[in-house]
Amino acid sequence: MSAPEAILSQVFGFAAFRPGQAEIVEAVLAGQDTLAIMPTGGGKSLCFQLPALCREGLTVVISPLIALMRDQVRGLQELGVAAGALTSGNTEAETEAVYLALSRGELKLLYIAPERLAGSATIDLLRRAKCTLIAVDEAHCVSQWGHDFRPDYLRLGDLRRALRVPLAAFTATADAETRAEIIRRLFDGDAPQIFLRGFDRPNITLNFAVKDSPRKQLMAYAAARKGQSGIIYCATRARTESLAQALSEAGHNARAYHGGMEAHERRMVEMLFQREDDLIVVATIAFGMGVDKPDIRWVAHADLPKSIESYYQEIGRAGRDGAPADTLTLFGPDDIRLRRAQIDESPAPLERKQADHARLNALLGLAEAVQCRRQVLLSYFGEASEPCGNCDLCARPVKLFNATTPVRKALSAVLRTGESFGAGHLIDILTGNVTAKVRDRGHDSLPTFAVGRDLSRAKWQAVFRQMMGRDLVRPDPERHGALRMTEAARPILRGEAEIHLREDTIARAKDGPAVRALVSDEDAPLLSALKAKRRALAEEARVPAYVIFTDRTLIEMAETRPDTMDAMARISGIGGKKLERYGALFLEVVTGAAPEAQHPQRRKLAGRDTAGLYDALFEITRGLERGSDGTGKLLTLPPATLRAIAEARPGSIDALARIKGMDAARVTRFGAAVLERVQAF
User: Fold this and answer.
1) pTM (2 decimals)?
2) Residue range 280-286: average pLDDT?
3) What does the DSSP assignment read for 650-678?
4) Top-level CATH class of 400-502?
């Protein structure tokens, strides 16, 4: 079994694991059943790809989307890893090549869609191929009431039992309920090793704004980030198309994406998004798990997401390379009504609807937060944190007002109407608006009628919105969304506690949004040149640009400006294969001149301490090729032998003589000088 640290460096080009990865890799390597909940962009794929290279046999990866599988396979092949996929998108030649590689025992990772588990032939194939590990990506797809549910994921438990091999399941978001469902369906209820890793993504800036001419808000936001890849999520298909058209007319490279499009149209948008650096995709949540692009620089929500989990997963598609990324979420009363209606009209059981309303309340709490937004988000996932300094509320603290009196008035209206009405009717009562509904029910004679005339309707909407965000009132699915008071509201109603809420201002921002730069002005031209080289290579190879190098790697290249292949090898994300294929090409962009050609044996040492020893030994032995007096018979040391000496660092003539290529004549000619240099290194 290979050492994981060596594989991490030599194949993937990383000097160290990200937080949490090492423990998961260790558990998977040890053959333990594993469930890892890690944030999007936290490096889940590495936690099964790396063990697959260290373990004997084949690792089969169950993944939900063809585009995702093909991208991961391409990326692995670029790293020199024997990986393949069996999908309905394969050509006959591709499928034959995979079957041939399986029969020869050459593949280390095989990606397959869950639908292939429907027949026994797949299980027989995996047995013959000596499958020793099952990895399940997007494990939350097993949850029957999740919006990403895939019925074929329910067969994964059968696959595990049939092959009798360990299973490692990975997901970005899974609350306690979903975790329990994953354990029940994939692990037969036997608790696996569970890793719940930090949900913080500190490189992502969090911003929310109340809708005020939302199209103008989004157009200004996109304009400040022109030339950067982004996603705008919309609640409806029609809005994706109209907004994409408006962006295109404003000079942006923008495309719509939704489930009503033809399959080939969706595939084309997916392909363009992977390959182009500046494309904006305006999408419904249909544009979801298949997004495996690490250098998405921003994500905007034109409408409020469905839940705090959905929000977290969708913004998590930005900045997966670790470089700065930005998010904006717009919200308003119409969004809340739409999301409430979707919950109430779903076929889910009552308990699920109640839980979904609580989740939406948590998202409203994030939208109407009065303190650091990241603290609120992380606390939902059970994590404590200090103020982040990287959200809108840290940058511009909000003005609060003592809302105890209006909240008590609102709660009184809820109770005096029998907890049978929604916010709209309650606001009519509070503001003294005698509608037919108010009059017919006699609510104009309630003690709470017109007691809230001091606040406008918009102010009352903000009060109710924030009350839901604090989970003081919650829609009742059994009563058509009527608001019911929660236990958390009782101390306020009884006068035992105060509450402070945000002032709801819809004033237009006087200053335009600030442009977020990936690098300093000084390094921006070089980054642009590196991106141009990357795009040219990607188009030539017909692969997404990030398969060549991610934004993060190019940013580090632009900022550190490597001037040798050794310096290039030390940049994060550049492993041996990437250095061999692209190192010299990008070094030429940085330095303006092609680097001197290196022997492949020397190139394998690039970035390592032993590279300097190899160079010193090369110079010493070159000077002794005709003996110390320059008149002897020509005798050279092969580069492979030089590399072996540099890596072994022999301490004696006997140890030197045991190295392949060091026959008696070479030991006599070079031995003393080589040992002296090795010992001095």
Assistant:
1) 0.74
2) 89
3) --SHHHHHTSTT--HHHHHHHHHHHHHHH
4) mainly alpha
